[in-house]
Amino acid sequence: MPMLKTNSQYCVIQSVIGGIAHPRIPLKNPYLVDQGGGVHILPGVGGITYNVAVGDSAFSFAGDHVEPGVSITLDERERDGASLGALCILACIGNEARVASGEALQARGFVTGKHGGVEHVIVDFAPSVLDKLVVGDRIQIKAVGQGLKLRDFPDVQVMSLDPELLQKMGIVAQGNQLVVPVTHVIPASIMGSGTGSRHSFSGDFDIQVSDTDLTQKYGLESLRLGDVIAIRDADCRFGRSIKSDAITIGVVVHGSCVVSGHGPGVTVIMTTSKKLIAPKMEQDANIAHYLGIGRFHRPAPQGRRRGK
To answer: 3-state DSSP helix/strand/coil percent for the chain, to nearest 5?
Structure first.
């Protein structure tokens, strides 16, 4: 398979660092209200999530916005805006991550997503590493990918994607189009929280799944964390908006949610306002498969995993 022509040799490689974030649940009002008025108290964002990995179902777990593996951010003392922005923008899916403190020092993993609002970068580590990590441990990322360009497709904007992962995704040029393997194709009209943001270089936007008929129509019950999907009529070059004939490619980065307007989150990795991307349905179009990580390469845990 021929390599895509890119400017990867000119992409800057720069370190960014964050600490493992503590899970967050408001103490005085922990209830989540679903579309039908039901109330829930569930695990959510942050922390070290031992039994959820890329490749797992986006719907199976009893949680809300659950992030697989390890969630990192900057603490309040470090959040000067620009530093947090550098972490959340420069980190790209597929970047190598390294544990920089604690018992798991020097262990390696991969960035698997970015979650807006809470401003988390999500990292996959092997289970043996997760057992050695503690909240607060520092994770350094070798950030590269922003500024990546496709030389033969200048009107396709690439973002938040490691150049080496791009070449592993089975994307090929056919005539004037890029053929991109995906697991699902959905319309921009069902995208919810995060739509309308000012840019798409950090965070994510959510697939609304409260309409069961639409969920079945687009086969979303089979959606997995790490799946590469196509969103028709979504133009994410300058924020996230709806535009006829545009198409966006993204990665599913966090689990589903019970709150209206929310659902599995998608980090954008490629977008165009023109008819330049042709999605190709492939069951294995998942970053766990491409990177050799997550549930594609290890069995689900038996019973309860004990973490530190």
So the answer is: 15, 35, 50
pLDDT tens, 158-216? 999 999 999 999 999 999 999 999 999 999 999 999 999 999 999 999 999 989 999 99
Give me the torsion for CA of 175, 180, 186, 192, rounded to 10°: -110
Nearest Cα to Cα of residue 148 among 134, 166, 129? 166
At 192, which CATH number?
2.102.30.10
Q: Are residues 131 and 173 in the same domain?
A: no
* CA 35 from centroid of its chain's CA atoms: 25
Q: Is 287 helix (H, G, I), strand (E, B) or coil?
A: helix
User: How far apart are the C-alpha atoms of 98 and 186, rounded to whole Å?
Assistant: 35
**Is the whole-model pTM more than 0.85?**
yes
Question: What gap in Å lies between CA 59 and CA 116, rounded to an integer?
Answer: 19
- The structural domain count of the chain equals 2
CB 79 within 8 A of CB 269: no
Q: Which two tokens stand for residue 165?
A: 């992962």
pLDDT tens digits along 111-158: 999 999 999 999 999 999 999 999 999 999 999 999 999 999 999 999
Domain containing 184 equals 157-289
251: nearest Cα among 221, 236, 231: 231
* Residue 257 falls inside a structural domain: yes
In angstroms, rounded to a whole number, what is the distance separating the alpha carbons of residues 134 and 227?
28
CA nearest 52: which of 70, 72, 37?
A: 70
Specify whether the backbone of 103 is left (phi greater than 0), alpha (psi in -120 to 50) or beta: alpha
